[in-house]
Amino acid sequence: MHKVSHPLVIFLTLLCSSFTYLIIQNWVLGETYSVKFINPEASGTFTRMTADISFSETDLPDSKFDVQIDVNSLDMGSPEMSKEALSPDMLNARRFSKIQFLSANISKTDRGFLAKGSLELHGIKKDIEIPFTFLSKTFAGSFDIKAKDYGINSLGNGAEDILRIELSVPVKEK
Q1: Per the structure, how many domains does the chain have?
Q2: Residue 106: inside a domain, yes or no?
Q3: Cβ(130)–Cβ(100) under 8 Å?
């Protein structure tokens, strides 16, 4: 039976830990990101967001997203429509100034990846799943939410309750 010295065990542990640290990649937002919502009656784009992104296809357990969207950056194509959407009757941007997605788990799928986590919108947190791809340093995905699930009772002009969210988020290495 061979004796293994403590310094050797410590060295190997540190060496393996340093490789684990190197695998995860931190990212910053590119300049041309896009966060859109689409509905048959209304659509818009949020133009300001921040994100803390750690993602590696080879280290999904340590990957995470913390994304915050500035609700007041909503652009619906006309100042009047944007103002109405930000009003207390709809998004109430003065009271609920951010939308936040915080991932809890990221997994591989046959079409890309799936981020499970909580979406906070209009002061209400709900667990959601966001399917996405990561190609050419761009995260892309789409998913549906029900406005009423987040306490948004009127989208105006008889719009349907379902909102399609489309994301295209280019990133750069931090």
Answers
A1: 1
A2: yes
A3: no
Which backbone phi and psi does 28 adopt, to 5 degrees? Answer: -120, 155
Distance CA 153, CA 156 (A): 9
Helices (H), the chain: 6-23, 79-86
Under-50 pLDDT residues of the chain: 15, 18-22
Q: What is the DSSP string of 160-171?
A: -SEEEEEEEEEE
DSSP character at residue 136: T
Domain extent, residue 125, equals 24-173
- Is 3 inside a domain boundary? no
pLDDT one-digit tens code per residue, 7-38 = 555 555 554 554 444 478 999 999 999 999 99
CA atoms within a 13 Å half-sphere pointing along the CA-CB vector of 125: 7
Question: Is residue 6 assigned to a domain?
Answer: no
User: CATH no. for residue 35?
Assistant: 2.40.128.110
